[in-house]
Structures are given as C-alpha cells and as structure tokens.
Amino acid sequence: MTAAALALGGATAQAQQVGTASAVNPAATANLKTIVIGQSIAHKEHIQTKSSGSVQLLFLDKTSMTIGPNSDLTIDEYVYDPKANTGKLAATLGKGALRFVGGQISHNGDAEIKTASALIGIRGGVMMTDGKGGIYSGYGTMTVTSGGRSVALGAGEFTQTQAGAPPTPPDLPPPGFVQQQIAIFQSAAGQTGGVRAGAASAKNIATAAQRATGSSNGMVTGSGAPPTPAPPPIVEQLSAISSAFTQSIQISNQAEAVQQIAQDQLTDKSPPDNHNSLPTDNNTPPPNARPSVTLRGYVGGVDVINDNQPTMRPVSGTSEITLDAANNRVQGNLDIYAFDSRNPFTQLAGTIHALFEFGSKGSSGPANSAYVDYNNFYANTPNNSVVNGVPVNGVMVSANGAATSQIVNGAIPNLTPCQCEYTRWGFWSVESTSTNPNTQTPREVLVGTWVAGRPVGSISDVPTIGQATYTGHVIANVNNAGFVAGGFSNTVDFGARTGAVSVTNLDNTNYSGTVNFDNDPRNFGGMIAGNNNNRSMTLQGSFFQGPSSPVGEMGGRVGISGDNNYFGSGIFAGTKR
C-alpha cells in the first residue's frame, strides 16, 4: 500500500508522507479532502470523520491508528529513522474515539496522544479512548496526565479523565467498555473499509456458502438428538467475548507490533510478579519467562450453525500448544469432535471431526502468532485455511496474562482462575468465512476453551500412597448461558486410585462425586452429579507437572447435561494445594 501511495502521490507527497490510509469508510477527510484507501497521509495532516465515517492509518513504523466516527485528529509530529527504528510521534485528538496500536516508535516510549482532557504517553502499547475521557490500556504501558497529576496504566487497566481534574486510579474498565469500543471501530452495515463494492453481494455470498459447506452439517457433525436452537443473544455474547480477548492482544491484526513487544521482553530487566505482570526495568532478566516447551491437554466448546434454523451443539477434543522462544512463535493444534453425553469423550464412528491449526513454529513461513512470555501469547489460523472443505479463520489466545486476565474476569462472573505455575489455559474461536445469505452472519462459529500442561514423564512418577488436594476452576460454554465458571477441587487418594471432586456455583449448580484413575494412572475420569435440574458433569483429565512435583498440577475437559436440553462443554485446571 505504501508503494502504491508513493506512486500516486508524486515527489511532494513522497517528501511529506508519514503513512497510508489502509481502510476508509466515508465520510472521512484529510485537510477537507475525502480520503480513499491507499492514500498517502502527510505530516501535519488534519483528519476529520462524520457520523458515518472512520479511517485506519498505517504509519511507516507499523504504528496503526483507527479513528472512529465524529472524530478530529491532527498529526502534530512524525519523525522516523527506519535504520535505527527510532523516531517520535505526536498527535492531538480534538474529539472522538481513537484506537492506537504501537509500532517501532512506541517501543522507545516516544509516542504521545493529546486529548481534550489528558496527555497519554505510550510505550509498546495498545490504547483505546472513547472521546469522553475514558482511556484503556489493552497492552504495554502508558502514562496518563491530567490536572497536574499522572497515573501509570498497565495491560487491561482503565482511567477516567476530565479537563482540569486528575485521572482516576487505575482500575478495570467499565462493564462492556472494551466491546463497545471494538464495535465503534468496526465497519457498519453496508461499509466495506474501501474494498470494491459488490464483492459481497447476496449472490456471491450464497455461492461461496454453498461451495464452502456443501450442506448444513458444518465442520463438526454431532450425534444423538438435535439440540434446541440457540437464542441469538447467546451467539452475540460469545462473539463479543471472543472479540474482546482477541483484540486486547491483537488489535488490527498488528502481529509485527506484538512480536516486537516480545523482542523487547528479551532485553527487559525486571522479574515479573508471581503470575500476571510483564517485566519492567530493573537488573536481572525474568527467570524462565519464555521457555520453549510443548504443552498437551484438552479442549471444549460449542459449535453454532447459523442456518435457517440455528443450532448449537457441544464439542470436545485435545490440544497441543508449542511455544517456540527462539522464533517468537506459537503453534496450537486442536483436535475437535462432537460431544455426546451418552458416549462421553468418544469420537463416534460416522461423525466428522475437525483439526484446527493456529500459528506456526520454526523459522520458515508466516508466524501468524506472537510469544511475549509464558503468560501472554496468541496464534491465528493461517491465511486461506480450509477445514473439512470450509474456509475458516480463527484465533487461540492465552488467558493467563495481564493482557487478558482482567477482561476475562470482568466478562465471566464467578471466575477465580487456577494459580497454576506450569499449566496454561485460554480461549479459542473459529468461524467460517462464508456467511448465511439471510442474516449475513458467519455460517458456522465454534467458540470454546483449552487447557494444556507439561505431561507427567512416566507412570512411575505417579505416587502410590498418600493424598493431595488440587484446587482451581472450571469454565464451560453452556447453550443457554454462554461462558460460565465455578470453583474446582479434587482430593486425590493415590493409594485408592480415586479422586473426590467438587465443582461449586457453576451456573447456579454444585457438583460432587468420585473419579477413578485409568489403567494409565496419569489419567483419570468419571461422572459427578449436580444439585439442580438433574444436571451431571462428565470429567476426563490428566496429572501435569508442577514446579516441585511431577504431579503438581492437573487439567482436563468437562461435558455437562441436564433437563430441558441443557448442555455445555469446557475445561478445568487445578494445582496442588
């Protein structure tokens, strides 16, 4: 796009150019001239949008700014040396909403946004402001100054400002704030971001949907009685939460910016706290902050088919997550099939299962991922992915780090995450790129959770005497409630080869019962009963390594069923208390 803009702009534009308009929804103007996709953006440019306008700017250092409707932004200063990867960026947001994804310049702390009520200094970060004084740090760090006082925001933190008054102390964003801002920066109905009109005509969509899916069976065919159609609000809830997780780390798909943050972490000098903080500046590098390791575990979720009669069904499977520190990459492989409560965790003959791959490892090919540290990583499906004949795109994200933990905790009530040292868990979503011609929604969407840990080395590593209690959480996707969470406890009797499991307050239900070790004692499973509406939960899990014990942690998958066609699927994680 930059090359195209230079060719169109002439010698004068080349001398002044600082970036390119990478997406535009009219009405948006630069110095009162309508912006078009691919247009050069110059130093001192004055960008204005109307109620139906928005524009995304991609700067030479890979910084991205998305300017929302009814906004006014001026680029006050932009200097960039591509050889040294240094420079300075300063802009004034006179009014309106802005999303900022830092590129090379912000990694040295030389990016500054001035609003009507505050001055925001950004280092390696992702920032959103609503034009009403609300400022959110999606990633990195930033300093917000107003009324002669300053506050420092970390990942996932929010402050409210007003002219002449100090910023409020850092806190969680207001409920729905992140999702609302994401919606502001997305194209509205009928807008294309500059793509050729007519490319998504009803005829083209219908043809693509038929070609992609062939039928309404989707990527994962279920078994047993068809589930009750899902109410549309549930689909919207899952999509909103998934978008929040994804965009908190990977706003505007700026993988290069996040990978640079990962590289910065290699030279940052302060040890993180026990779980959720990124390193800052001090004297010693964080120990084992970015191990190269392959984790194995489980996956759960739901499959939503958006045909004329929408349906939801539970899915289950296994996960393998490879963290490649040498190349700052992540590869996730999720093997998913339909969950049938009558034959739990069994891939039944005649059913179709899906193999989803996210990201990549090694040094060749596109990364499609970023590995910041052991708490913060994500991976996307490769471009042009096709699964079972269906073109798809998706994301797999860790929920352990500060970049997502506060969003997760705010979005999912009753969640107290496992304080696991080695075991990791998170969210995944995949959707077909074809759409239902009647609703314009993705033809099929799968959304769920994953858990993965360091496998126990051998059978002999599992004790044969003694007891231990493991505590953590269960989180599941339920057909009439969306994501729900509850407390998890498993008191294991290694001599008896059993575990007494309790799950508390999961969608207003408590579960309890006994699980038994498999022939391979590294694995266990069983069914426990709920105290509400004849609900039951099937569990299958494994012991995982902990920092001081070969069986110090555990993780697994759950399937839930009950009266009135109630069902769900998810994961659990626990650490030895």
TrEMBL record:
| Biased amino acid composition, Polar residues | 273-283
For the region Disordered, what residue ranges are annotated? 213-232, 266-293
The FecR protein domain sits at 47-129
Q: Which Pfam families match?
A: FecR
Question: Protein name, please?
Answer: FecR protein domain-containing protein
